[in-house]
Amino acid sequence: MQNLLTSEGETRTDDWTLLPRDVSATELPTGDLIVPFRVWVEARTELLARGSRAGVWLASDEQAEDLEPFLAELAIIAIDFPVFSDGRGYSNARILRERLGYDGELRAVGDVLRDQLFLMRRCGFDSFALRSDRNAAQAVSALADFRHAYQHATIDPGVPLVRRDH
Amino acid sequence: MLEDRVAQFRDQTSRYLRGELSESEFRPLRLQNGLYVQRLAPMLRVAIPYGMLTARQLRMLAHIARRYDKGYAHFSTRQNIQYNWPRLEEVPDILAELATVEMHAIQTSGNCIRNVTADQFAGVARDEIEDPRPWCELIRQWSTFHPEFTFLPRKFKIAVSGSRDDRAAVQVHDIGLELHRNAAGETGFRVLVGGGLGRTPLIGAVIREFLPAPELLSYLEAILRVYNRFGRRDNIYKARIKILVKALGEQAFAARVETEWLDIRTRMAPVEPAQIERLQASFPPPDYLHLDADHAAANLAKERAADRAFDRWVERNVMPHRQLGYSMVTISLKPTGIAPGDATDQQMELVADLADEFSFGELRVAHEQNLVLADVRQEQLHELWCRLRPAGLATPNIGLLTDIICCPGGDFCSLANAKSIPIAEAIQRRFDDLDYLHDLGDIELNISGCMNACGHHHVGHIGVLGVDKKGAEFYQLLLGGSQGNQASLATILGPSFASDEVPSVIATILDIYVARRIEGETFIEFVRRVGVEPFREIVYAKPAHV
Ligand code: SF4
Fold this sequence. Notes:
The complex is a heterodimer of chains A (166) and B (546). By secondary structure, chain A is of the alpha/beta class. Chain A has one domain (3-163): Rossmann fold. Helix content of chain A is 23%, strand content 19%. Chain A contains four helices and eight strands. Chain A has helices spanning 37-49, 88-99, 114-122, 136-139, and strands at 4-6, 11-12, 17-18, 33-36, 54-58, 76-81, 105-110, 127-129. In chain A, strands 2-1-8-7-6-5-4-3 form an eight-stranded mixed beta sheet. In chain A, a hairpin with a 4-residue loop joins strand 1 and strand 2. The radius of gyration of chain A is 16 Å and the shape is globular. Chain B has four domains: 2-99, Sulfite Reductase Hemoprotein, domain 2, CATH 3.90.480.20; 124-281, Sulfite Reductase Hemoprotein, domain 1, CATH 3.30.413.10; 293-391, Sulfite Reductase Hemoprotein, domain 2 (Alpha-Beta Complex); 405-539, Sulfite Reductase Hemoprotein, domain 1. Chain B is built from 18 helices and 21 strands. By secondary structure, chain B is α+β, with helices and mostly antiparallel strands. In chain B, the strands form four sheets. In chain B, strands 16, 17, 18, 19, 20 and 21 form a six-stranded mixed beta sheet that branches. In chain B, strands 1-2-5-4-13 form a five-stranded antiparallel beta sheet. Chain B is globular, with a radius of gyration of 23 Å. At the A-B interface, helix 2 and helix 3 of A face helix 1, helix 2, helix 5, helix 6 and helix 9 of B. Iron/sulfur cluster binds at residues 407-409, 413, 415-416, 448-450, 452-455 of chain B.
């Protein structure tokens, strides 16, 4: 089952390996890795020297600002939603995109469900690793759940702050 | 936008009913659509943005009460309306019907920014500095489906006041905004944060004395972001913003917001003057007639002199208006024997007709759970009163002891420790002598069925709180709370009472006031002067012969 969805509505097979929070920084598997921030700090040099791609995932209690020195080196940033009702990842996403100017892939991982995709996309996520028991293809329509939005948000900074067309 | 939302929720509901969405996944989705699961049935809460309704919308609310519920509905202390008996399968239909009159239940529950509330006399009050409604509308639009702030640590309530006398309870909201003008005559907001009732009642702290009004949204965004990132999520009783403000300290919290704001401002432009004008233009004053105010006043005086009941109603339920010859009328939803804030479908139909006939087709919901016709010609007051009276809508008790604020309590709410509606009724029955009530004057009595404080018991002059005492329903009494500019939190009187003791304890409290007040002193002024100790001594005094 393909569980990866892009903001363009395409489904993909995920070829990244996401390592859990308690993984050891000295025993990294081969292939493209998304590692916990702590592992990135500990093993950054090795990760960059491996010839495969590397990125970081942020836990919901970690701060986007801590990634600032590394933004140019990261092939992907993932933000974890431990439960969908933990909304801290939305702020981290906007800070990465808007304040820190990160323009690489920004992926939502964890308890990612179709009913949150629209919000996530508006905060700057451009790929979504749906929870493993969900089908990405069925979630595509959720990206277009609302035709209008009021706020200025990351994906359409040109939209006026307040629109009257509701 | 609303149709999109109804379609989305219809899909979510059917996925839930088919078993494709689990209870825990459906829960936040139904909550975002105003649907709670209560003791007896689901409860649907419909937003009335800053309390403003058209007659057409009220007719729809009446229709929904009749068709999908038991023929009545409940106006809440949040200027919303609640239906206690809808069927889950029919909720998407109800939402679709509401959408035809631009109404919805979005963000009336869940951990998001809730319906913004304001003064029920906005735009007509004599002490108004500026109409708060255009700003409320701006906040409403900004907060609707805000992509970043839909899963906050806890619910979030914003209130806006635009007048000298605060009638929006800005000091007990997560954010309170007070419109005022600076020396240069520019409009801005005094920003209060971290007020609230519930388990940890607190008065909000001023974190900014003057925020230029066009910068409102970027500043709100900064507050919400600090809260979203750093508010506690490990304990729902410590998750409101007030706990974060307290933990960091007011100044440190304000400094964090300021830093965040300075950054957000670089990307988020102030609201443009043209946008503000457009918002303001959507609240035009109605087409007032130029009336002979002196003649109307003389006539009203005559009518009042001729009819004691009408005179009483005018005294309590009618307020002076900004426009000569007009009045603001509060329709009491607190007659004895009816749950405070409840209205039947027929009453709602009648009020809608009266709004069309007497008040430009508009009405408001007050957070005290009453309805307001804001633009009634003085010369028509008597006729209006005659039409309200047979429908049980002319109770002359606004601001009096029997104008009780009361949560749904144990009759409906699954969180309750005790019932609240029967206590309200017992108090109303005990104090049914209008002369006595009018002599007592302004007294606010607020009842909550548990410490979640939906009945605002902390800010009642007299507060009643339902508590659980070894499985039995008991009531704690509080004294000295108040809302408004001099907001204060009430003090607990002492050990709790059984339900049948409550009316007589309140009688004792009132006797003390009547016996010891000085000329012209209101109940709350008296309590502030003497404190709660004299009340304690007498209420808990052991009878001498025991
Ligand atoms: S105060 Fe308690 S009992 Fe009353 S409505 Fe709120 S949660 Fe329910």
